[in-house]
Amino acid sequence: MTSDVASKGSAEVNTAELTSAGELTAEDLGSVHLIGIGGVGMAGLARLLLTRGIPVSGSELREWPTLAGLRALGGIIHMSHVASNLDGVDTVVYSTAIPQDHLELVEARKRGLRVLHRSEALKAAMTNRQTIAVAGTHGKTTTTSIMTVILQHAGQDPSFVIGGEISEAGSNGHHGTGPHFVAEADESDKSFLIYRPHVAIVTNIEGDHLNNWGDLDALKAGFVQFGRLTEPDGCVVTCADDPGTQDLITTLRAEGRTVWTYGESADADLRISDIVSTASGVRYAASLDGEPLGEIKLALPGKHMGLNSAAAVLTALRLGLPLDKVVEALAAFPGVRRRFERKGIAAGVRVYDEYAYHPTSVKAALRTLREVAGDGRLLVVFQPYRVYRTRDLQAELAEGLAIADQVIVMEVFGPGEVRQPGEGGVALTAAIDLPADRKVFVPDWEDVPAEVVRRSREGDVVVTMGAPPISLMGDELLAALADSE
What we know:
Elements: E1 32-35, H1 40-51, E2 56-59, H2 66-72, E3 76-78, E4 91-94, H3 103-111, E5 114-117, H4 118-125, E6 130-135, H5 140-153, E7 159-166, E8 171-174, E9 180-184, E10 199-202, H6 210-213, H7 216-228, E11 235-239, H8 246-254, E12 259-263, E13 270-278, E14 281-288, E15 291-298, H9 303-318, H10 323-332, E16 341-346, E17 349-354, H11 359-373, E18 378-383, H12 387-392, H13 394-401, E19 406-409, H14 425-431, E20 439-441, H15 448-455, E21 461-466, H16 474-484
Parallel strand pairs: 1-2, 1-4, 2-3, 4-5, 6-9, 6-10, 7-9, 10-11, 11-12, 12-13, 17-21, 18-19, 18-21, 19-20
Antiparallel strand pairs: 7-8, 13-14, 14-15, 16-17
Helix pairs in contact: 1-2, 1-4, 5-9, 5-10, 7-8, 9-10, 11-13, 13-14, 15-16
């Protein structure tokens, strides 16, 4: 989730400049202030620091759902961006979404405070832990969450920072007593290149964030570099089925590095087969190094969810965790907020929220939700995420959205970006191959609930999908549907 502070000036991280953290530990940071603390990534870091006993403050402009939990842990939240927020602060943390001319960032440097990118602060917190870093175009958050839950069920009490909240735990960050630290590694701004993981999980590699990387070849090379950063006795875990990971596998193995693979491919180290996905979840048969492991179940539907779980299963077994604890953890896994999250039901309409914004994840999510809808129709409220992505992948996004029966497209959420004529929600709506009465562009947030009420009927499934702010829409839709009864 990205907060409202981003504007012109935010850019990719120059990893060559990310040296100020050095070998800092979290305790070296003193009192920490996070600009844009409400975003899920920043909130996860804040929660980790707070559970470690480190004083944390932060600034925001909107009351994001993550803030209540941070306050309960003792975090101080300022609902404004002003210089006085930095009084008594030792370290200021910013994310790539924060422009370099942001008032608090400028003030921090003026005062001579320690200024760290989020990835630097996270690296400091990883000190003296065996890090499991999860990267990839799709599935990072779910895979990181499953890996965390497996370690918890095995009694390991891991530290973790996740780009989404594990549903029942309501947590996306924690300082544990165990030896492991599980974290998402963000390739979008290249900041994943400052970590030194023991295990580097790469779920898949597909063209995205090319505004920072330039082209797919450069992105693939970045993942190879990420794999090379693993500790000498560590390993890379990746999907054998994914076309984007093939160069990664070949290159790293040729260099003598340990690479373990999972998937349906015959040569996968953890091979999965007989995949069955229904509305109640996904299950598959698994074998490791040719030895059957039995059936593995996950209470979330979708083949892609099965693959995400397989990444965590392979990692756990290579770390020596017992199979029965792995299977037990998957069966109990509650899901992740904003990943196939059921918000509620009103007027006989089921409302879900889903973070998917890239064409591949949009297609996977909508196909899975079609299974859930059964005899009902599927309506999607889509808020495109980033102008460049919506423009460059417009045809693919339109193809994915056409899986739904009804599509409501909002305006693009792109902090700091400028839409040119012919770009944005209007163009995307026009590109969707559905009859005119089954798609509509609704630019104003307050008009969306009424449009959903008008288009939905009992038995339907409605999903809010896309950019971070749309996660706040579900409750409004439920209220509007309830009022319509």
